[in-house]
Amino acid sequence: MSNTLEIIDLHVSVEDKEILKGINLVVKEGEVHAIMGPNGNGKSTLLQTIMGHPKYTITRGSILFNGEDVLTMSVDERARKGIFLAMQYPQEISGVTNSDFLRAAINSRREENISLFKFIKQIEANIKKLKMKDDLAHRFVNDGFSGGEKKRNEILQMMMLEPSIAMLDEIDSGLDVDAIKLVSDAINELIGKNPMGLLVVSHYERFFTLIKPTHSHVIVDGKIVVEGDNELVMKIDTDGYDWLYKELDITPVKEDKPLVYSLGTCANNKRNYNA
Q1: CB within 8 A of 100, min separation 6: which ones?
Q2: Is the per-residue pLDDT at 102 higher than 80?
Q3: Residues 84/156, Cβ–Cβ less than 8 Å
Q4: Are 207 and 213 within 8 A, CB to CB?
Q5: What are the residues facing 20 on neighbouring strands?
Q6: Are 52 and 219 in contact (CB under 8 A)?
Q7: Residue 194 and residue 178: Cα distance in Å, rounded?
Q8: Coil, strand or helix at 262
Q9: What is the pLDDT of residue 2?
Q10: pLDDT tens-digit map of 161-213
Q11: How far is CA 64 from the centre of its chain?
Q12: How far is CA 4 from the centre of its chain?
């Protein structure tokens, strides 16, 4: 049975303000879903809710992974099941090395711990693919990293963990052209050997050109208003969203960027983000 993430009539609020207003979406392994739309309309909210961000209140709907109720799971349970989120603003975890962090995460998903030899071989190979510094394994997680290093470190985590469903929240922002090519090559290679389902939020057509979405969805005012394939990505890159507003008689929503909190150990660090 293929791994499947199913989102049914999902309504989500933040501090009594409704952000998502009935999202329906099915993501299967081997599929790449582009999530597009203007800032402030719910794209990142969708990904954060799937991962279990504590700031979001689900008022209606359900999320299922292989038929299991995701909403009853803690964040770490979702991760152990194979759901992964590469965050728009990766957090620093001082005192924890990348190698310790990744090995513990990998072992949490295995019946038998990964051997030290196999782990070192894999992490060194993936660090080389992403052209990251040789000492990365021994550095604290994202501590002192540049913005681009943090984004590539998120991809390193995905490569090591090999999730069933991966979500990338503007992972390409802040990366130069060469780094975007490295990241997209790594994603494509991982999909080739591990047919995971992928949800990708990005504003850049170039990134979608490199990873080639099989499905595309546009979210406006908390709803998916149009769906398609890679041709929809190309049309929006060329024509923007004005044609869509006119065709569907939609008034675009402009919202302030809310303050949110990161997941896990860094829950007290505030970050602004584009929903």
Answers
A1: none
A2: yes
A3: no
A4: no
A5: 12
A6: no
A7: 24
A8: coil
A9: 85
A10: 999 999 999 999 888 889 999 999 999 999 988 889 999 999 888 899 999 99
A11: 17
A12: 16
Please give the full DSSP string across 44-111, using - where no structure is assigned: HHHHHHHHT-TT-EEEEEEEEETTEEGGGS-HHHHHHHTEEEE-SSPPPEEEEEHHHHHHHHHHTT-S
Phi, psi (deg, nearest 5) at residue 68 = -90, 145
Amino acid at 208: F
How far from chain centre, in Å, is Cα 162?
13
Number of residues that this document lists for the chain: 275
Residue 120, SS3?
A: helix
| Assigned token pair, 43 | 């794209």
Tokens describing residue 239: 């024509």
Provide the whole-model pTM.
0.88
Contact 154, 87 (CB under 8 A): yes
> What digits encode the pLDDT tens for the residues 1-30?
689 999 999 999 998 899 999 999 999 999
| φ, ψ at 198 (rounded to 5°) | -135, 130
Q: What's the 3-state SS for 137-162?
A: HHCEECCCCCHHHHHHHHHHHHHHHC
